[in-house]
Amino acid sequence: MARVVSQSIPSEYEKMYKEIARPATEMIPGSGLFYTQGRYPFKMSGKKPVYGYNGTPAQNEVRDVFKQCCECFGKQPKTGGYLPPDIGPRARTWWFGSAIGSGLWYYNYFMKASLNLGLAGFRPDWCKQPPIGDTYDRQDFPNVNYHTESYLFAYGAICPHRYVYIRPPEQKASVFHIKVFSRSSMGWLFTGILIWRINEVWDETTETWNTRPGLVGPIYTLPKDLCQPGMWINIPVSNIEYGIAIGTNFNEPQGNLMQYAFYSSQYSYQGYRPFWT
């Protein structure tokens, strides 16, 4: 239902307006019983593409953010969830309690908070899914576990190797986001990163070079220009059951050092931690 109060409709839009805002119709003349008819969305000026029509780039950008926020709300669990400052979906009971005092229904409160960040170019923490676990290993320390480290290292040379391991969230996700802390190179052969698919169960608390899981791939390659320090790397991977591994080209001549450092889930600053969407 739409309520129009003190609104002037330009004459050139009168016909379109009457078609969009279809009045209620009396079912049987004199009965006093009315029913409403649905509007024709494809006649709304600037609607999302319907029958070939499209809005302006700015309109489409706003609609995309709104759609993302709606999808994000659908992933907020009824109970449980993550509590700030941790990243991850928050329980709807948490949103209900947080909305008290705002004068807004908890869904409207959620949408307002999400849209404000989304339209400013940020992804809200509650629209991210944290990895279940992440770690890395080192060939030169084959029995050491590094799952509590704040940084994850991928290293390529003749020896030693280092791989980064990431476990996906329980909810379905198709893109992994990880931020580069630093990279170093020595020698003229310097490339980007390679992504492998992990094909067996592993545990971040016990994973070492000697217990590392089996890998398939590489299934994805990112050039060095897209792996600069301070940049988010967005890795499109789907149907990942056990996780992914990140490394570099390990077939370089001796003396070529290629090392990336990434922020891990243990890093103290929330906005730098890796996440899935």
**Hey, roughly how much beta strand do the residues contain?**
15-25%
Distance between the termini: 35 Å
Q: Whole-number radius of gyration?
A: 26 Å
Order of helices and strands: HEEHHHEEEEEEEEEE
Q: Which parts are unreliable, with pLDDT below 50 for 5 consecutive residues or more?
A: none
The helix tally amounts to 4
Biggest sheet strand line-up: 3-5-10-7-8
Please outline the major beta sheet: 5 strands, antiparallel
What is the global morphology?
Answer: elongated
Compute the number of structural domains.
2
Name the average pLDDT: 82
Class of secondary structure makeup: alpha+beta
- Tell me the total number of β-strands: 12
Helix content: 10-25%
Describe the model.
The longest helix is centred in the first third of the chain and has 18 residues, at 57-74. The strands form 3 sheets. The chain has a 5-stranded antiparallel sheet, with no helix packed on it. Strands 4, 6, 9, 11 and 12 form a 5-stranded antiparallel sheet that branches. The protein is elongated and about 90 Å long. By secondary structure, the chain is of the alpha+beta class. Helix content is 17%, strand content 24%. It is built from 4 helices and 12 strands. The protein starts with 13 loop residues before the first helix and ends with a strand. The model has no long low-confidence stretch (mean pLDDT 82).
